[in-house]
Amino acid sequence: MTEILDILLSASFWAAAIRIASPLIFAAMGELICERAGVLNLGIEGIMVVGAFAGWMAVYAGAGLWMGVGVALVMGMVFGAVHATLTVPFGLSQHVVGLGITLLATAATYYAYRIALPEVTSPPKIDAFEPYTVPILGDLPLLGEALFQQTPLTYAAFATAALTAFVLFRTPLGLALRAAGENPASVAAQGLSVTGLRMGAVIVGSGLMAVGGAFLTMSAFDSFFFEMVNGRGWICIALVVFGAWKPGKTLLGAILFAAFDALQIRLQQTPIGADAPYQVFLMAPYILSILALVVMSRRASVPAALMVPFNKGER
Amino acid sequence: MADVVLRLTGVTKRFGPVIANGDVSFDVHRGEVVALLGENGAGKTTLMNILFGLYAADAGSVELFGRALPPAAPRAALDAGVGMVHQHFTLAENLSVLENIVLGTRALWSPSLGRRRAVAKIDALMADYGLRVDHGARVADLSVGERQRVEILKALYRDARILILDEPTAVLTPQEAEDLFATLRTAVARGLSVIFISHKLHEVAAISDRVVVLRHGRVVAQAATAETTPQDMARLMVGGDIPAPKPRPAKPGAPRVDLVGVSTDGLRNVTLTLPAGQITGLAGVSGNGQGALADLLAGLTAPTAGEMRVDGQVPTDWSPRAAIAAGIARIPEDRHGTGTIGDLSLTENSMLERYAEAPMSHAGWFDHGAARAFASRIIETYDVRCPGPETPIRLLSGGNMQKLILGRVMEGAPKIILANQPVRGLDIGALTYVHSQLLAARDRGAAVLLISEDLDEVIALSDVIHVMSEGRVSPGFARGEMSPAQLGQWMAGEGFDRAA
């Protein structure tokens, strides 16, 4: 057991956890915004793949790193717009559309990759984001290395979570979005457009998902592989439930999951790792997530109009 | 006239060949309560939807405060100072009272909700109008009466000068209705105008200054409330006399249900007999155990103490299935929630209790033809107005939904009918029909238990009246034995204390 304690007390472990959490934070905030407005976005997995590819490709083609993030954001919004058009004004099944977007986005990425790089056998590398040590804060013992020696994109992830919380709970726009997810009729009764609010939420949320994907190729690694997203989108769906549709709790959930993930990687290198098959360790974060989900989300209140299309004038 | 706040001139709206509103003209003045009367389908809702810009009128004009209202502009009426309290509230339940009130009142891109100023304004409004609600509470935790107060506060917060209330008392207890009337009187005294849509004529007589009666989309009468009577209003709404059912004396038979000292969660030592061929009325303010009694008879709960006998037998395994098998038919209190399944068709809803029996099914297979024939028979016999038996039932009006439930109950030739608030929210025509059907069932020998908050209804229909208070049931009083005032004392719990 001392191995686990040693790991948990090391700054590098927490630095890794924060790094692993960053893409989850972006994407989970995106999903949270969609669901708060009443739309379940199962396109998240595919949109993350698109973001991972688009950001990396843009930088490879010569764009700056932040420009790459911007390209990923816009590409995510494009797929989000497709999702929003089908689910909001047309009111199609959000499950079917979401899974369709994931399949479409993944396949389109594969296609674009082959078109863009027909000859290569192994994907080229880019100069990814470098860690930036925040002055003063970065020198703090333990906390400095864990939190303030990250890449700029990690800081952006935390800022995104804070901004999401602020907009949702402190501004009229956020209130209208939440009301659209609770009882769209209450929004329509005030002469506001439920369609506009929901489409906007899905488009912006999808943009954030794509940025989460871009983090993988531009900050966590420096290249693009298929299978890179590897279910992170689905994890984010669970994180939003775990966080009871609240940005702060969702952020904590992302860090918790990432910590489990970082822990299992390190445990594999300890004597415990020699005794058990490595698959057990790979499973651990998911099993612990499910357990946490069961415990935490008992009393969570789902947005009442989640997955309920709104047609004006219908009872 | 300078103090006309709303003027409708020749408003006409057709849906295909159906005239929803024909040449509707009337004025609303500053500081008055106008009651808009009419049966379901008389065009009240269409008129309000035109006012709120959901529909464009085919002809005619709407003037608010002397200015023409642009057609089909949803925010125009709101911005001009018209607030509407819908019958089905438009509140987001998981949001707080404050959030529901300020929703949509500030520019979307404004960086703050202006919470502090909003709280101050709401507090002032609550003090001025006597509307008490905790503005930090979640709407889901509020009672129906409190939710209605939130809706009124919403309108007042937007500086509404005209309040429109659609069937505001349909969901309120008598005490809550009194509080609402007090609020409306305050509002009118402050120069607001109120349009009160209702078909409860006693309330209309009590609160309104003027009545406007709509029938088949046209204004058939306008009069000062003081110069008319509820009977006149009823005649105008329906376009003729409605014969109030004149019950013949009951011929009570053997007891169908006997409760002796029964207690459950919500019932305290209840003794009650339901004989065949009698309507037993149960008066009382809702929430005093009526629900618990209805659940017991419907088989949803079993007695924890005391004895229940159905047709002289103590049932061994009491469940909804057993209750149906014993011939208990239910008109549930909540016709949307427990009476019907909104997305299922009329056919499916009509056979909910008997889908597994012949002729609906044979050896485990549905006979859709027989089911549809059954539904069609109900639709025809009980005058359910609907596009057809395959229509989802949620598209029907409350009255027609209730007629289908009534048909489902009656077609089973029930021995015991449990009618819980059977006419809540229904117009006079539908109400009279439901009552006459209950009387007819009684005359056929059914034991009818009528649970209602409306004391007038209980007195008019019941052969024997019991009163409920705090889970207790009073002794039975024969028709005419007690005055309404005396029954009111029992409802307040006084008689129980003396008897104890």
TrEMBL record, chain A:
Domain of life the protein comes from: Bacteria
Compartment(s): Cell membrane
Record-linked InterPro entries: ABC_transp_permease (IPR001851)
Topology versus the membrane: Multi-pass membrane protein
Pfam families for the chain: BPD_transp_2
Keywords in alphabetical order: Cell membrane, Membrane, Transmembrane, Transmembrane helix
Annotated transmembrane regions: 37-58, 65-86, 92-113, 153-177, 197-221, 233-260, 280-297
Protein name: ABC transporter permease
Upper taxonomic lineage: Bacteria, Pseudomonadati, Pseudomonadota, Alphaproteobacteria, Rhodobacterales
UniProtKB/TrEMBL annotation, chain B:
KW ATP-binding (keyword) present: yes
Record Gene3D superfamilies: P-loop containing nucleotide triphosphate hydrolases
One Pfam family from the record: ABC_tran
InterPro entries (UniProt xref): AAA+_ATPase, ABC_carbohydrate_import_ATPase, ABC_transporter-like_ATP-bd, ABC_transporter-like_CS, P-loop_NTPase
Keywords noted in UniProt: ATP-binding, Nucleotide-binding, Repeat, Sugar transport, Transport
Recorded GO MF terms: ATP binding
Residue ranges annotated for the ABC transporter domain, each copy included: 6-241, 252-495
Name used for this protein in its record: Sugar ABC transporter ATP-binding protein
Organism of provenance: Jannaschia pagri
Organism lineage: Bacteria, Pseudomonadati, Pseudomonadota, Alphaproteobacteria, Rhodobacterales
